[in-house]
Specification:
single chain; mainly alpha; about 55 residues
């Protein structure tokens, strides 16, 4: 979880590695985990929210 712009009103996740698809999956999974933990969302709801509210 990146906090470099914490006061700006949004959160982001990143995936880093030699495989771009694995990195993208890691970033998406990180956001789903974040939404599930911090905002008590079901994983399916977190995935749907992430897919409409963020870019990849």
């Amino acid at each position: 979880m990146s906090r470099h712009l914490e006061g700006k009103g949004y959160e982001d996740t990143i995936g880093i590695g030699p495989d771009i698809m694995a990195g993208a999956r890691d970033a998406v999974q990180g956001m789903i985990d974040f939404l599930t933990r911090r905002h008590q969302r079901a994983p399916t709801d977190a995935y749907l929210l992430r897919s409409v509210a963020a870019t990849s």
